[in-house]
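Researcher: Here's the sequence for the chain we discussed earlier.
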Amino acid sequence: MTTASGNDDEALIAAVERFLAREVRPVAIALEQADEYPESIVEQMREMGLFGAIIPEAYGGLGLSAQTYARLVETIAAEWMSLSGIINSHLIMASAVMRHGTPAQKDYFLPRFARAELRGGIALTEPDCGTDLQAIRARAQREGDQYLVNGSKTWITNGLHGNCFALLVKTDPKAEPRHRGMSLFIAEKGPGFSVPRKLSKLGYRGIDTVEMLFEDYRIPADRLIGGVEGRGLQQILAGLELGRINVAARGVGVARSAYEEALSYSQQRKTFGKPICEHQAIQLKLADMATRVEAARLLTESAARAFDAGKRCDLEAGMAKLFATEAAMENAAESLRIHGAYGYSRELRVERLYRDAPLLVIGEGTNEMQRLIIARRLLDAAADRQR
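Model: Thanks. This is the structure I predict for it:
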């Protein structure tokens, strides 16, 4: 039997599908090619409450489970992947406050995040570090009831149009191990916080990705998440579990879209007197593509269930992220090949899927790093069983 909550979830997904078909599909190719921020679409996403997707209803959010959120992200990414990134980075920031913020921080920030009054993402990566976050150099020094921040960040999603970010900095550069010197702040734009330039990208266009510069930027001490220094790395890594589930769901969406485009085209295109879907070579490709989509979705659902249950899920999220994003890469390439020259044309979605997919194997921790995380967790579990 479907619960009332289940009915609500189904109604939300159906509403988002209608919104995407009506408002996004007709303009996505043009906006993406122009690398133009989709202001009107984002405003409608705000009105639908999507910026509060996982924020509890008590704080004005939709209170979605990770499982429903993953379905939402898959649905959006299947239409235009960039839109899913606009809410995901924002919700990783919100998740950090939800899990680790003080009661006062939750009361102040979460309703504003849900309304998208404050909207942004996470500021982690720096010019010389990405996967190795412990190597960051941005510094926050305590001065009375404020911190003075200096440093830079790069590849920050929502950096131009957003106004608030979860900022990872060093509060004690000499600490050993290094993570004990790292802290996470909620940083709103203001004097000393600038965005020198927007970065040009192969894909994932329309959404803004920028460099950030902090020059004697002052931030109130009460914006330190949790109120205690030295916990920033653990706080943001916990949020990245949700981020990896999101990226896995994006992978499912891109893989699904690539498969559906290929299936449809193969039924229309004819060679040697019959539709190409009747050729065995094409059938083999379609079978593999559909199987990848289903397997990726099941892995993503498994990770989301573990997250909802409050379990440690870096293993499940890593597996989902690894498989689903590789599925997106493979399906995008196969779809382009099935389309032939038309797949290479900028007039079709397939070309965009082919450019968007590579980001997924890099973002939220490279797939090489996911393999290491998976292997270490498997070895730890094996060692525990032998004790």
